[in-house]
Amino acid sequence: MRPRRGIVQGLLRNGAGVASALFIVFLVLVALFGPVIYSGDPLAISDSPMLHPGGSHLLGTDDLGRDVLAELVYGVRVSLFVGCVAAFAATVMGTLVGAIAGYAGGWVDTTIMRIAEFFQVMPTFILAVVIVALLGPGLLRVVAVIALLSWPQTARIARGEVLRVSQLDFVNGVRCLGVPEWRILFREIMPNAIGPVLALGTLIVGYAILLEASLSFLGLSSPDIVSWGRILSVGQRFLFSAWWLSVFPGLAIFATVLAFNLLGDALGDLLNPRRART
Amino acid sequence: MSDSADPILEMQALCVTYDTHGRVVHALQDASVTVSAGEAVGIAGESGSGKSTLARAALGLLPERVGRITAGRVSIAGVDVTRYTPRQWERLRGRPLAIVFQDPLSFLNPVMRVGAQIGESVRRHDPHADAHARCVELLELVKLDASVARRYPHELSGGMRQRVMLAIALGCRPRLLIADEPTTALDATTQTEILALLRSLRESLDMSLLVISHDLGLLRWNCDRVYVMYAGHTVEHGRTEDVLQRSAHPYTRGLVEASRMRRRADGRFATIGGDVPDLRQRYHFCPFVARCAHAFATCREAMPPALPADGADHTARCWLLQSQTVPA
Amino acid sequence: MARYLRSRLLWACVMVVGIVIVGFLITHILPGDPVDVLVGDFPAPPDYVTQVRHEFGLDQPLSTQLGLYVANLARGNLGFSFLNRQPVLELILQRAGATLLLMVPALILASVLGVMIAVRAARHAGRGVDSVLTGISLVGYSVPVFWLAQILIVVFAVKLAWLPAQGMFSIRTPGTGLGVVADYAKHWVLPGACITVYYLAVVARVARSSMLEMLHQDFVLTARAKGLSERAVLWRHVLRNSLIPVITVIGYNFGYSLTGAILTETVFAWPGLGSLFITSISNRDYPVLAGIFLLAAVAVVIANLITDLLYAAADPRVRVAAPAAA
Q1: Residue B261 lies inside a defined structural domain of this protein
Q2: What are the sequence ranges of the domains in chain A?
Q3: Which residues 128-187 of A have a C-beta within 8 angstroms of C?
């Protein structure tokens, strides 16, 4: 009962899903090979500050004379890193916890979900800001905070799916064959429960990227890393004179987050076990 | 507009397809059913035979954009409703045709009190009546206490919910009540009660009944006439005792044998061998041919018409009847 | 129902306790002297520092410290903000009004519009209208709010000069009367739009998928079979059921509204808790930061509790068995 077959075909049928997937592949390539094209330190001053886009600086330069396009290219790595690692961690943690809660039931379930609720209540952004303000900036810190406060959402979905699938008849059938419980959970139930979890995971990537950009925008990121949000904060100061410092990094963030959200939606539609079947 | 001699429901050679994302299923391929005033008619068949589709087609309840009538006609009280728009259907549903579904838990609105749901039916079809009083009346009719009106569906037992569904349908003052597997989700004792209720309602309200079920025993005790469906076709039709005791179609015979649960000479239960028919194709020949022990050449070439069998108004679509040899 | 609510209330209290403990821990994770967190980076008079040390028992074991911290909180003592020369609690209460004036109208607008869009989209699911509306809500969900704010300012405040770019009131604001309301409304439009866009997208997404699921439910078939008009089916049966998860989402949104306000208030210099939060960061005014954290978390707990109440009121099935998680 593996629903893997037909996922690629289904995704291909969804035009937006394809476009966003391709865009993400493009981003990954930029992240991997960008530094090859733009060798050298993007944070090094390369020219006069506040140059308009055009010529050797396609997207202009920032207030310190750094090439905006180079910063954008390097910024991809930061965004993808934060987004993917945070989403991955949150998804793995949430799925494990949620699956155990859903499968075990009873007081284990109640306790786990209560704890999950507590984590979810914490305001993620505020906590991230407070931690960074108190302990200093750091990508891993940001990733940790996001993952710690996002796993409850995944846990909830995973638990719901596990509950649904464990009620299907084939589980009892396998049980009667004498397969041990933990094996049933991991080999039979979880592969069928993965769908909505994956869709949510993709959405978390988008959320994490926005959060990291927001932190950088507020000036809370390390000056050693290149983040799109930081360029936007400069753009804020020069809103009326240097429009390219606002438009391009903002566009980059928007496009990236949009792509992940579109992909998440496409996956969600595709992997939704309750798709109306006549 | 309608002649009282017209049958309340008439379906002739009806074909219905479901089209989901390019996958086409021919749920009904040639179904003909007629129900007249005061009758109790049954439709027998297993899952996939198209009996539920038939019920929905009778009320224009096929899923929007997915289900379509591709051929044949449906008429209600003499009016051809085959091409009716959703707007036209809205005015027609409830009276003269009402329907009761199986497994009422999912068929009742979970956040609305039961009384309100019955009241809706009343207000729609009896706008000048006192909705509350009529609701109580209907509950009594289905042998439920008036206090049930304030409950929610999940607070009631299966049997009670089925009675509520009945009350909702009766609130429409239907001339024909269609019951789609009315007792399948219930335990044996409740089944008997509901069936007895249906019978008494039929008499007291002078209402026709169309019962759809895979349970032959149920049909035997409640219906004057019976249709047998297979692969979207109505393959046999006649008076109940004729069809069940002097079955003409091999499929019917197989059904009856299987329902008796008697062992054959070799100690095994009687079943019908082979697989359920694939409804993705249209059958221009007999759909039962793959599983029939008596099939011969003509069976694979053309669909048999309704041929007369043993008994008045008893017909079956089987080539065996043409040669008038009824196998032992 | 009463039992369900009692257990939720109890758990809410437990969570508040947990939040307080987390708040306490935060003020103690700063490497170095915890006094700095409670006093802030400002040069404070030494007597005050000693007083704080005493009040919060910083030379004493952690458990005593926790007790004193809680006691202080109960008395309303969240510390003193030297930057603003006010007790933190007073400062927070002062600024909370502005944030509410920004968020509440935006959330209400977003919820109403979101549901309307969702109904439209669900009715015509899979067709042109649906794709457009879903696309719009997807964009609203993906746009960085601070970028949107910048663009709106450039277009509407600078290029077109229709609306003010900053603040909640003009400098020369009429003191009372309709003029004040109009002034506030003019200032609200741009920041309000930024916030509405995001929450509208969230609500529309949930409402649409919920409605689509409901439209395929069996009881809709029964409603149609009764002969009800499509409008009656939609409003009386489908909507009532599909709004239940939407209530949950809207409730959560109200809870997280403080978080949502931060970036917008910063860009528009709206004098609420959000901008207070940001200035406190750059000025390392830690007592204010900790206070806002507490407030935000407790607001979520309260909002969730109210949402649970509404949920139980809307869905009678919930009242029978307390779900393990809302």
Answers
A1: yes
A2: 7-38+58-270
A3: 129-131, 133-135, 156, 159
What token pair was written down for C231?
């409008």
Residue B75 located in a structural domain: no
Q: For residues C226 and B168, is the Cβ–Cβ distance under 8 A?
A: yes
**Which two three-digit tokens encode residue B268?**
């095994």
Assess if residue B197 is contained within a domain.
Answer: no
Q: Residue written as tokens 């990954």?
A: A28
Whole-number Å distance between alpha carbons of A69 and A34: 11
Specify whether the CB–CB gap between C132 and C120 falls below 8 A: no
A113 touches chain C (CB under 8 A): yes
Supply the pTM of this predicted model.
0.81
Burial of residue A20 (CB within 10 Å: 0-12, 13-18, 19+) is buried
Distance between CA C122 and CA C111 in Å, rounded?
Answer: 16
pLDDT in tens, chain A (278 residues): 334 445 555 555 567 778 888 889 988 888 888 777 776 677 777 777 777 777 777 777 777 778 888 888 888 888 999 999 999 999 999 998 988 888 888 889 989 999 998 998 888 888 888 888 777 888 888 899 889 889 998 998 888 888 887 777 777 777 777 777 777 777 777 777 777 888 889 999 999 999 999 988 888 888 778 888 888 888 888 877 877 888 888 999 999 999 999 888 888 877 765 553 32
Does C258 contact chain A (CB < 8 Å)? yes
Measure CB to CB from residue B61 to each of C225, C237, C316 and give the nearest one: C225
Q: Which of B173, B189, B216 is the last residue of a domain?
A: B173
Residue ranges of chain B whose CB lies within 8 Å of a chain A CB: 18, 20, 25, 63, 66-67
Closest-CA residue to B249 (of B315, B159, B181): B315
Backbone angles phi and psi of B186, in degrees to 5: -110, 160
Which of B173, B191, B223 terminates a domain? The answer is B173
Q: What DSSP string runs through A86-134?
A: HHHHHHHHHHHHHHHHHHH-HHHHHHHHHHHHHHHHS-HHHHHHHHHHH
Range list of H helices, B5-64: 51-58
Chains that touch C (3 or more CB pairs under 8 A): A, B
Instruction: Establish if A278 touches chain B: CB-CB under 8 angstroms.
Output: yes
Question: Rounded to a whole number, what is the distance in Å from the CA of A10 to chain C's nearest CA?
Answer: 15
Which token pair is B18?
A: 């479901």
How close does chain C come to A177, measured CA to CA in Å?
31
Fold of A7-38+58-270: MetI-like fold (1.10.3720)
**DSSP letter, residue B154:** G
Structural domains in chain B (count): 2
Parent domain of B254: 247-321
- Give the three-state DSSP class for B177: strand
Q: Do A117 and C326 touch (CB under 8 A)?
A: yes
Q: Quick check: B115 and B149 in contact, CB under 8 A?
A: yes
| B108 touching chain C per CB within 8 A | yes
Distance CA C288, CA C66 (A): 19
State the Cα–Cα distance between residues B246 and B230, nearest whole angstrom: 18
**Could you give phi then psi for residue B178, rounded to 5 degrees?**
-100, 130
ipTM higher than 0.95?
no
Q: How many CB pairs under 8 A join A and B?
A: 7
Q: How many CB pairs under 8 A join A and C?
A: 124
Cβ distance C239 to C233 under 8 Å?
no
Query: For residue B306, is it within any domain?
Result: yes
